[in-house]
Each structure stands twice: as C-alpha cells, then as structure tokens.
Structure prediction request, 391 residues.
Amino acid sequence: MSTPSSPPPSGSSRIPVPRKKRYPLPTLKADIQKVVDARGSTYTTISALLVMWEADDTDAASDVSSMSALLTDQFGITPTICKLGRSDRTPAWTLAGEIHSLLQKNHTPTAAEAKSLFIIYYVGHATHNISNGLVFCSSGGKDLPWDAIHLELFAKDAKLQHVDSLAILDCCYAGSARAVSTRSMQILAAAGPTEQARSRTSGASFTARFGGAVRSLKAQGMHIITIAAIWAEVERQKPNPNTPTSQLSVLGGSYPISLPFKKGRVMSPTSRIPIAARSNIRDRHILVSLTLDGRHKDATKEFTDAIQKLPGRLKITLVDAYETDASALILARMSLEVWATFSHHVDFDFVGIIIGPSLVHGVDTLQPVNKTGENIPPGPHVPVPPGKPFR
Prediction:
C-alpha cells in the first residue's frame, strides 16, 4: 500500500490500443466464402512416396507397412516405398531423384483445371542443424536435410504448378519443417519444433494415431476428408497428456487438401487400428476474436447471419459480442478442424483453447454440430457449388 513517504507505484494505466485494424465485413465474408467454395475440391491424380532408412532402430518398417496399407485400403493410393541404403553416400540426391521421377511420371497436366497431389511420408529419426532446420537422420549416421526435399517439390517449373503437396512427418522436431510456395502445401507433423516423437512410451506411434483418425472419420459416414479433419481427430484421440502435440502447417494455396475414400474398400489386417470411443474424450475448441468494421448492431447481425449459413463441418458459433468505438468486438468458437481450415485464409485473433462450457453463464455452447449428410462426395478438382453464398 502506498504511503506519503513511499515512491509512486510503477506501471502504466494507459488504455491498450488493439494491434489489428477492424475487419470490414465484406472482406470477412469473401475470405470465408473462398474456403467454403473450395471444400469439395479433389485431385485427378494422387501419388505417395513413403521414406525410411535401411539402418533404422525406431520400428519404422512397421509404420511404413501400416501407412502403405492405409493409403491403399482407404484411398486407393498405391504408394512407392523408398528405403535409403546403409551405404548410400548421397541420400539427399537419391530421394530427390525418386521425387523427380514420380512427379514427371504421374503428374503431367492433362487439362487447364486439373490438379494433382503428391504425398511424401517420412518415418524415423530426425534432428536439427545449426540453423534449427529439420534434418532426417539414420541410426547409422547418415543425414538428409528437409531442404533437399522441399526444394525438389517446389522447383519453379511451370509444368508442376498444378501439383499440391502434403508432407506427413513421423519424427522428432517435425514441426520445424518449413517451405514457401504459391501452391497448396501442408505439413502434418507428429510433434512441434522442439519435441521428440518416436518413443512408444507415450502410447501408439503417430502413424498409428493417424490411421485411427482416418478410420474414425470414415465411420462417421464421410466420403471425403480434409487433412485438417484428420489432424483434429488425431488430437481429439490423443492417448495421454505426455503424447507430443501434433501440428498442421498450411504453407500456401487457397484450396484445402482433401482425400476421397475408396469406394467398396476392404480393410487389410495390417490396417486394423482401434477407433477411440467418442464418449471418453473431451472435445477441444478454439476461441477467437475479431473486430468488425461498421455499426455494432448491424455488423453483429450480419456476422450472425453469415455463420448460420455455414455447412456443418465448417460451423462457427457466436459466443458473445460487444460494442466498441464505431465497431463490434466478436468472440466466437470453432472446432480444431474448422480452425485449421479457416485460420490460413481468415484473419481471426486466437484467444485460447477451451474444453468445456462457459464457467460464468453455465450454458454448454460446445455441443457437437450436426455433420450428418453435409460431407461432399468425391469429384473433379472443380469447386462444388456450396449452395447460396452468404454475401
């Protein structure tokens, strides 16, 4: 407590100034509509390259077998397996050659609108270089920098501009993988930039959890799934708090990356992984804020009308709204899947992760949205008309 002889307390009582400008509602609607329009996009060609070391002590061979069976059984994708040899003095050249060969063989453009997807999966050891860049490494002392892969995937070749890429990395420090591209590129990483991931002490491997998430979504009656949906389900089914937190990085392009399920598939024994029971898991949601430009009541009403027209799997829920100086401050919540889908295209301000209803209002605003019948069947890589846009 201050006294006449004590020094004045330090600190400032100035009103903080929001760092982000107000979001014009037409711009917000256009940004959201772009994602909605693209949600039915698929690919004319999908190929996959599964990479591991011959000198491996992480049980990578088992995970490669599981991933191969998963891609074949669930999506009708027959992957190519690249096993980097013990005596290979230039593994980066070897892998770059495999990537280049598959791209040239399977991804020649056939039409102006045709899009194709290249999937690369790596499982095994990894470390950092002196620049904190991701480096794949074998138990025999071989190194392969991530840069060698993404430079080949994103070579400035006009013939490859129709090719999007998905990297699935089941290794330590996977979240430190980065790339820059104007094409769609997503990296699904088993762990963050500073976390280890290949230990089985925290439960099933990331590859096994990925497979469980795919089958869980298939059991919900989905015909096509986005990588954002798979990532959200992987996190929902996290076996225990010590399991590394996976992350999804969206590094370019306006289209979400989607995989259509194979019709009439038969599940192989190697791809049978138990599906976690929904009743035993508390769903986590993302709380966001944004400041809308315009009259507060009108802006809030228009925002409410807009999000009510979103399809089930892209549902955003208004939590609260407040008047500010000539604008409206909005609080909204959404699932992990919706956050991963929108956050690269819509300028939401992240507030936090929530796992239950309001502790003040006592109203459960986190009931799962009805997703039955909303999923879009596979089709050509042309945006499926989403119905009435909410402009």
